[in-house]
Structure formats: structure tokens, C-alpha cells
Specification:
The protein has 69 residues and is mostly helical. It has a domain of 46 residues. The termini are far apart.
């Protein structure tokens, strides 16, 4: 009887440990995905800002050339 109880306890402990491990892994994966998405969005925003600045500068140069020319 005591051996059965010990086995049950061991099984319950193993189940709890596996659930904890699964939860931790899921949380880590979610955090990593969120961080990657945020970094990608920031990079895209920076690229868009750079492109708009370059386009604005080129447009200003064209306007100046046209006005002066």
C-alpha cells in the first residue's frame, strides 16, 4: 500500500513538473516572439523614416533646381 502511495505521489510530482516546464517554455516562446516582432516593427519604422527623409530631401533639391533653373 505504501509503495502504491509513493508511486502515486511520484506520478503527481512528475505531472506537475512537466506542466510547469511546459508553461515556462510557452511563456519564454511568447516573450521571444513579442520581442522579435517589436524589433522588426522598430526597424521597419526606422527604414520608413529614412526613406521619407531621403525622398523629402530629393524633392526639395528638385524644387530648388527647378525654381533656380
Amino acid at each position: 500500500m505504501t509503495i502504491m502511495m509513493i508511486m502515486m505521489m511520484l506520478i503527481i510530482i512528475i505531472i506537475l513538473l512537466t506542466t510547469v516546464v511546459v508553461v515556462v517554455v510557452v511563456v519564454v516562446v511568447v516573450v521571444v516572439v513579442v520581442v522579435v516582432v517589436v524589433v522588426v516593427v522598430i526597424i521597419i519604422i526606422i527604414i520608413i523614416i529614412k526613406v521619407t527623409v531621403v525622398v523629402a530631401v530629393l524633392a526639395a533639391v528638385v524644387v530648388v533646381v527647378v525654381v533656380l533653373g
